[in-house]
Write a structure and sequence with these properties.
The complex is a heterodimer. By secondary structure, chain A is of the alpha/beta class. Chain A has helices at 9-12, 34-41, 65-70, 85-92, 103-114, 196-202; strands at residues 5-6, 21-24, 48-51, 74-79, 97-100, 120-122, 136-139, 145-148, 154-157, 160-165, 172-180, 186-187, 205-213, 233-236. Chain B has helices at residues 10-19, 89-97, 132-138, 199-204; strands spanning 26-29, 48-51, 55-59, 79-86, 103-106, 110-112, 117-118, 142-146, 157-158, 173-176, 179-184, 187-193, 211-212. The longest helix of chain B is centred in the first third of the chain and has 10 residues, at 10-19. The chains are: A alpha/beta, B alpha/beta. At the A-B interface, α5 and α6 of A face α2 and α3 of B.
């Protein structure tokens, strides 16, 4: 019998260790698996490589990615829009690394990783600092540049310049779904879908917090946004968007 | 003394851009003043607003309680209109790169007279690109909404962008608080001055070289 439903978040997260790479769904605060992140913060993990679109806002008492950054659990953030002022301060001080990735490229790199692809060519970022090897990923003391984004291979296809992007294959994904069943089938809600199914596809181990679980059966086949084989563990949470 | 305050307000600028949107267009609106566009309905025109994390059919801010799962690119609460759709961020950027966006409207730090756009990084500042590079690479048209001058009073329409590019040669039109410019066969062209603003004033506040063709109607 297949049953991916777990009684609590803590047991699902034991595989995540210091230095693990973790993709996290969400756009701003929409569709962020806040309860899973809180449970992760209960564990003694540091030096994470977080792959997520945003970096939180650095507000007091903030949950989500901002909490991971504030508690200094993140070594490297692969994202499109970091925003968080405190994290920027530590980036310029050389304490943390930022791999800045255009938002659509970030989504597609996760999708490629989850689809068994070796990468893809995109026109996005061609002719910019995010493709030419100048963007600083890591500073050293006194503003010395320690690491930049590698210059991307480019290729002219049908007269247009494209750059080669690599797949992302994080160790883990933390995902928020609206509905789930014991097979791990997921359904998302409106703008909360965003990066969640892509993070789930890409990761070696995917942990889901669902607003609701269909305890008495399964989701109707046509209602499923992401099928169960991409999902390892499902935890039911209070459901911040219950309606 | 020249100041930018005599031009259009943000809401007036949004109204001016909304006047040029075509019935049936699919339009992405970026962070900043473009987010005011869904508030500017035009009778007789249906515009489908795209939000890059994965929504089509975004409408104005809600009158009642906001839905936390329905936000715009700036993470502000919005509504969904009839015909709306939701999808993941990969599909959302397939809409952009795949050429299904008739238009994207973005803010800008600088625009070059060659159509270059710089809107994501002031050198030495905090980097954050969002979906801007994907959108300008994919949308069929790219329009910029911005103040004519930056906060230091320097022209944003420049010979060349000095800030890192979002995309090379991507801009089709520029709407500022003072004027409307269009790239006509690759040549930056002044199309319109805001009410009370003279062409001479525009010339004094613009570094970029441009042609003047004020006869041209929109589109």
């Amino acid at each position: 019998m297949i049953d991916k439903i777990r009684p609590g978040a803590v047991d699902c997260l034991t595989g995540i260790r210091s230095g693990s790479s973790v993709a996290i769904g969400g756009f701003g605060q929409t569709g962020v698996p806040l309860d899973l992140i809180d449970a992760l913060c209960d564990r003694d993990v540091r030096g994470l490589h977080i792959i997520a679109n945003n970096g939180g806002r650095g507000l007091p008492g903030e949950r989500g990615i901002g909490r991971l950054l504030k508690e200094n659990r993140v070594r490297r953030l692969s994202c499109s829009f970091p925003v968080n002022p405190d994290f920027f301060r530590r980036y310029f001080a050389g304490d943390v690394e930022i791999e800045l990735v255009p938002q659509g490229t970030l989504a597609e790199r996760l999708r490629a990783g989850g689809s068994g692809l070796g990468g893809f060519y995109t026109p996005t970022a061609a002719g910019t600092m995010l493709a030419d090897g100048r963007f600083v990923v890591r500073y050293g003391e006194g503003g010395v540049v320690r690491e930049t984004l590698a210059q991307k291979e480019s290729r002219v296809i049908d007269g247009r310049t494209y750059v080669l992007e690599s797949p992302l294959r994080p160790d883990f994904a933390l995902v928020k779904a609206h509905l789930a069943d014991r097979y791990g089938n997921l359904r998302f809600r409106l703008g909360a879908r965003n990066f969640n199914p892509l993070a789930a596809m890409a990761a070696g181990c995917t942990i889901v917090q669902a607003d609701h679980i269909a305890h008495d059966g399964s989701l109707p086949p046509d209602d499923i946004h992401l099928p169960g084989p991409f999902v390892d563990h499902v935890v039911e949470t209070a459901g911040e968007t219950v309606r | 003394m020249t100041t930018a305050q005599q031009g259009l307000t943000r809401a007036e600028l949004a109204r001016r851009v909304a006047d040029d949107l075509v019935d049936g267009w699919c339009v992405n609106v970026g962070i900043g003043v473009p987010l005011l566009l869904p508030e500017q309905a035009t009778p007789g025109r249906e515009i489908v607003y795209h939000c890059e994390h994965g929504l089509l059919g975004v409408g104005p801010a809600p009158q009642g309680a906001p839905d936390p799962d329905v936000t715009d690119a700036g993470k502000n609460p919005v509504t969904l209109v009839e015909g709306a759709a939701s999808f993941d961020s990969s599909l959302s950027f397939a809409i952009a790169r795949g050429g299904r966006l008739d238009l994207c409207v973005l803010g800008a730090l600088q625009v070059g007279e060659n159509g270059d756009l710089a809107n994501w990084l002031v050198p030495g500042g905090n980097p954050g690109v969002g979906g801007a590079m994907d959108l300008v690479a994919g949308a069929r048209r790219v329009w910029v909404m911005m103040t004519h001058l930056d906060k230091q009073g320097r022209p944003k329409l420049r010979k060349r962008c000095s800030f890192p590019l979002t995309g090379p040669g991507v801009v089709d039109r520029v709407y500022t608080d003072l004027a409307v410019f269009e790239f006509v066969d690759g040549v930056l062209t002044l199309r319109e001055c805001a009410p009370g603003v003279t062409p001479e004033r525009i010339a004094a506040l613009t570094e970029a070289a441009y042609s003047v063709d004020l006869r041209g109607e929109s589109i």
